[in-house]
Specification:
Layout lengths: L20 H7 L4 H5 L12 H4 L8 H19 L18 H7 L4 H14 L3 H17 L7 H9 L9
Helix pairs in contact: 6-8, 7-8
């Protein structure tokens, strides 16, 4: 979605004439419980025409696809013996919950502290807390890391909305 009604909030080449109230009012139209159900919130700036033609060191799509495939394979192997109930298997981190979530998505001590501090500071719900753990587990999987570390937790927390457009 756009950051505000006109879509220019945060755009360096254009300006929102009603910022920051416009962004705050626009973002407030989506309820907190709905936002809480979205795992990743990323601001994507408009592409500048000049940037489109620049050569860079960006990772190409086939390399990204391979990393994602490898991470999903790790998740499938991790959960292949786990079941939600007798008929439903777990295949990805997004499906882990309860005891299974705590078994496989438990961060290191520094990560636990960062997550606990964030719960208190930002008022994360239990749903939000669990979603941070799942996203952190996925970030660790993409890095081929068996242990969720503090930087995985910090990155996952940064993907939460956390009332960025308060007015």
């Amino acid at each position: 979605m756009n950051p505000c009604k006109c879509g220019y909030f945060g755009d360096e080449s254009r300006s929102c004439t009603k910022a920051p109230k416009c962004a705050g009012d626009y973002q407030a139209k989506i309820s907190g419980p709905l936002l809480d159900r979205i795992d990743i919130h990323i601001d994507v700036p408009a592409v500048q025409i000049a940037d489109f033609y620049k050569e860079g060191n960006e990772e190409n799509s086939s390399d990204i696809s391979k990393r994602v495939f490898d991470a999903r394979k790790v998740q499938y192997e991790r959960y292949k013996e786990e079941k939600i109930d007798k008929a439903i298997s777990i295949e990805t981190n997004s499906e882990a919950d309860g005891d299974i979530l705590m078994k496989y998505c438990f961060p290191d001590e520094k990560g636990k502290k960062i997550l606990n501090d964030s719960v208190n500071k930002f008022g994360l719900s239990m749903r939000g807390h669990n979603r941070v753990l799942r996203v952190a587990r996925t970030i660790a999987d993409l890095e081929k890391n068996d242990q969720i570390q503090s930087h995985h937790i910090a990155e996952a927390i940064n993907y939460r909305h956390l009332n960025r457009y308060k007015h």
